[in-house]
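As noted in the main text, all predictions were made from sequence alone. Below is one such record, for Cold shock domain-containing protein.
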Amino acid sequence: MREHGHLSEWNEDRGFGFIAPANGRARLFVHVSAFPRQGGPPSIGEILSYEVGEGRDGRAAAQRVQRPGGAKRAHGSRPSSSPPRRAVPWTGGLVLAAVAVVAMFGLRETTRAGSTAGNAATPLPATRAAPVAPRFSCDGRTECPQMRSCDEARYFLRHCPGVRMDGDRDGVPCEQQWCP
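Prediction:
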């Protein structure tokens, strides 16, 4: 599954850096070999699309990195013998807009989480639980009547762009139906 984020650190001499995922997870290692050959060297702040895989040391690392509007071919792969397809002019802008929306949503969530992190009344957990694969996925539903549970409504509010489930903006979705 492809994820999005921006390049937060880059060491040109050593050919690696770190991506700050839009979903707020911990930074992710990325090697220059994960980037497509065309497009020039990576630059800090650049918005990227990538897949999470296992690096040489067994830790999570970004793989098959793509840049908005860039080529979809992975680093080191050969072009196919079929003739090139003509791109529709507006697709690059559409992809860039989608990545920007995802990045802004992730920044909003990070900012929201950061504003409560400094609150002395909020206790910090002693240990972190291992990440669990999400039970839900963003599939276009945006309103409370389309949800099936409070957990599902919370997931959509936190992870999916364009939802309309928190009218009073208090962070609790579907208060009239699912999360009283």
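Residues 2-66 form a domain with the OB fold (Dihydrolipoamide Acetyltransferase, E2P) fold (CATH 2.40.50.140). Confidence is low (pLDDT under 50) at residues 71-82. These features were considered when defining construct boundaries for the mutagenesis experiments described in Section 2.9.
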